[in-house]
Write a structure and sequence with these properties.
This protein is of the alpha+beta class. It has 2 domains: about 130 residues, Fructose-1,6-Bisphosphatase, subunit A, domain 1 (Fructose-1,6-Bisphosphatase, Chain A, domain 1), CATH 3.30.540.10; about 110 residues, 3-Layer(aba) Sandwich (D-Maltodextrin-Binding Protein, domain 2), CATH 3.40.190. Helices cover about 35% and strands about 25% of the residues. Strands 4-3-5-6-7-8-9-10 form an 8-stranded mixed beta sheet, with helices on both faces. Strands 12-11-13-15-14 form a 5-stranded mixed beta sheet, sandwiched between helices. A two-stranded antiparallel sheet has the order 1-2. A hairpin with a 3-residue loop joins β3 and β4. α1 packs antiparallel against α2 and α6 packs parallel to α7. It starts with a helix and ends in a 9-residue tail after the last helix. The relative contact order is 0.13. The C terminus is likely disordered.
């Protein structure tokens, strides 16, 4: 294990301890300018994560959901300190922490930690994907009629309605489960529990770590046009075997709507 991965894991677990300190406790849920919720747990978790990484890599740059972009370096840590704030605030357990390391624009490391269940997913570029140190692989199912697909619509009703309209054919072909947040669902794709995840209203910190883990597990993550990127709003992630079929239903040029 290289130093960057070790530090990312330690930082994610430290952030997880912060989240569990507030989990199912009373706190205020605020609303950011973009309409997304934020709590003291989000902010404190990000502070702890960045502080821990800086101890070892003081000259690296950071891009956090709560603190934004700061520092200049060919190495950029992309951090989501609490994915699933709505679930967290309601006392549900499906929330997580995502930490990715970008080198010269390329994601080379990804860590996803689910504190409530103590599940840890990791990947380094070219070295495979792991859960709790054990290698994981995406599912081998290659048709939608046998697939489980998670559909994550965001707070913007017009986008959700648009996706449901476009996805009518998809829903007829497969089992759709509606979801409210994506980190653990993306990990279901990575470890072969589900075949695909379709999400709206996403940001780079939502998919940077998960995208690498899924790719290293044998899957793929793209926008609705089929482009592999973390700069997306709409995401299709799958085991790779049903990606083309989903893209044919939902994809097409100019389908990647901006926030």
């Amino acid at each position: 294990m290289n130093k960057e991965l070790s530090v990312a894991i330690t930082s994610a677990k430290k952030g997880g301890k912060v989240l569990m300190k507030y989990f199912r406790k009373k706190f205020i849920v605020e609303e950011k300018n973009d309409g997304t919720p934020v709590t003291i747990a989000d902010k404190k978790s990000e502070e702890v994560i960045i502080k821990n990484i800086k101890k070892t890599f003081p000259f690296h740059a950071f891009w956090g959901e709560e603190s934004g972009e700061h520092g200049r370096s060919e190495y950029v840590w992309i951090i989501d300190p609490l994915d699933g704030t709505k679930s967290f605030a309601r006392g549900l357990r499906d929330f997580g922490i995502s930490i990715a390391l970008q080198k010269k624009g390329d994601i080379v490391l990804g860590v996803v930690y689910l504190p409530a269940t103590n599940e840890l997913y990791t990947a380094e570029k070219g070295k495979g994907a792991f859960k709790g140190g054990k290698r994981i692989f995406s599912s081998k199912i290659d048709t939608l009629d046998k697939s489980m697909v998670y559909l994550d619509t965001n707070r913007k009703k017009w986008e959700a309605d648009d996706l449901w309209d476009k996805g009518s054919s998809l829903m007829k072909k497969t089992e759709i489960i509606r979801s409210e947040n994506g980190t653990n669902k993306l990990m279901y794709v990575a470890e072969g529990i589900a075949e695909a995840y379709v999400g709206l209203g996403l940001e780079p910190w939502d998919v940077a770590a998960a995208g690498l883990i899924i790719k290293e597990a044998g899957g793929t993550l793209t926008d609705f046009s089929g482009k592999e990127t973390i700069l997306l709003n709409r995401c299709i992630s799958s085991n790779g075997r049903v990606q083309k079929e989903i893209l044919n239903i939902l994809g097409g040029k100019n389908n990647n709507v901006e926030n």
